[in-house]
């Protein structure tokens, strides 16, 4: 099976291209953006984030992305920790989908 990865900045047409690939060619499409959004609602992931960064990055049970960003951007160690957590889980989901 051929894998095609569509990348680009915000609002550059990635979703449009993927929708056309699915519609015209019948390709299966998986969105890493959607996987990440889902992960940030997953109880196990949120628990690990809360353990690492504290309740200050939450509004009740929901992750506050702006507050989390304030903690990780500009802090290389924190950013790498979060990326390693999330990227490993995204890769696992992609491999499971394949």
Structure description:
It is a single chain. This protein has 98 residues and is mainly alpha-helical. It has helices at 14-25, 32-39, 43-53, 65-72, 76-97, and strands spanning 58-59, 62-63. It has a two-stranded antiparallel ribbon with strand order 1-2. A hairpin with a 2-residue loop joins strand 1 and strand 2 (62-63). The longest helix has 22 residues, at 76-97. The N and C termini lie close together (9 Å).
Order of helices and strands: HHHEEHH
Count, helices: 5
Give the strand line-up of the largest sheet.
Answer: 1-2
The assigned structural class equals mainly alpha
**Shape annotation:** elongated
Proportion of beta-strand residues: under 5%
Largest sheet: 2 strands, antiparallel
Poorly predicted sequence stretches spanning 5 or more consecutive residues:
none
Mean pLDDT: 93
Please give the radius of gyration in angstroms: 16 Å
What is the oligomer described by this structure?
single chain
Q: Tell me the number of strands.
A: 2
Give the % helix.
55-70%
Distance between the termini: 9 Å
Main attributes of the structure:
98 residues; mainly alpha; two-stranded antiparallel ribbon; 2 strands; elongated
Brief overview:
This protein is mainly alpha-helical and 98 residues long. The protein has helices at residues 14-25, 32-39, 43-53, 65-72, 76-97, and strands at 58-59, 62-63. The radius of gyration is 16 Å and the shape is elongated.
Record the SSE blueprint:
Elements: H1 14-25, H2 32-39, H3 43-53, E1 58-59, E2 62-63, H4 65-72, H5 76-97
Antiparallel strand pairs: 1-2
